[in-house]
What we know:
- The protein has 4 helices and 15 strands.
- By secondary structure, it is an alpha+beta fold.
- The chain has one domain: Alpha-Beta Complex (Creatine Amidinohydrolase).
- A 5-stranded antiparallel sheet has the order 8-7-9-14-15. Strands 1, 2, 4 and 5 form a 4-stranded antiparallel sheet that branches. The protein has a 3-stranded antiparallel sheet with strand order 3-12-11, with no helix packed on it.
- The N and C termini lie far apart (41 Å).
Amino acid sequence: MILKKSRAEVAVMARAGKVVADLHEILREALRPGMSTADLDEIAEREVRGRGAMPSFKGYRGFPATLCTSVNAEIVHGIPSRRVVLREGDLVKIDAGAIVEGYHGDSAVTWVVGDETSVDPAVADLVERTRAGLWAGLLAARSGARLSDISAAVEARALPHSYGVVREYVGHGIGRALHEDPHVPNYGRPGRGPKLVPGLVLAVEPMFNLGGPETRTLDDDWTVVTADGSLSSHWEHTVAITEDGPWVLTARSDEPAWPLREPERVPRAATLDARGAR
């Protein structure tokens, strides 16, 4: 069942989203070669709880940490560990959630550890184009559109580059539960599925692989990796459908939040054309 939120509920979710947005900025500043993913998790739990919020992920279906930290060929749901020490040029995907007054905010980023110029241009393009897919999907999240308009907008950023679009793990509704209906795939034809209406809140989260779309899960029963060992990128924002356009509840300080109207207001990544030209 798809649950619409009142304006008051969306306002609370915006507060949860602000906690997550601030957290990602703090982690970006802290990120450096030589630190472990457990170090990132410690920072995250301290910052989330210090803002009067609760971590969304810790204890969720038995997950043991505040963050999901997935490195290189890991796509999503990686468990922070002292044994995972980040190196220059690693791709680290940081997924974070926070609960404020019973409502969740959820957002994920992909960062290059250390000097961003140290990675192969193809890897840098993967990261930017996945982020572009996220913002294309967010721009499509407008009242009166169909759910698959988001999916098609995301996939259109991957197809020209033959990226593998992960299908087993998709976006979702969000509210009092971390995962609600509907599922929000990152692929599909436009004009299908439920109509988007004010009060619907979604987590849009493309995952693109340099290789194929196939995945497998490691023995920890959480960490999802690319089946072919290729690198992967993951971006996510929580967005509310409003009468005035999409409201990105987890937007960071360098990103537009509300209302999204014109492409020029979107981060540089989302303005990449189909060939990746800047």
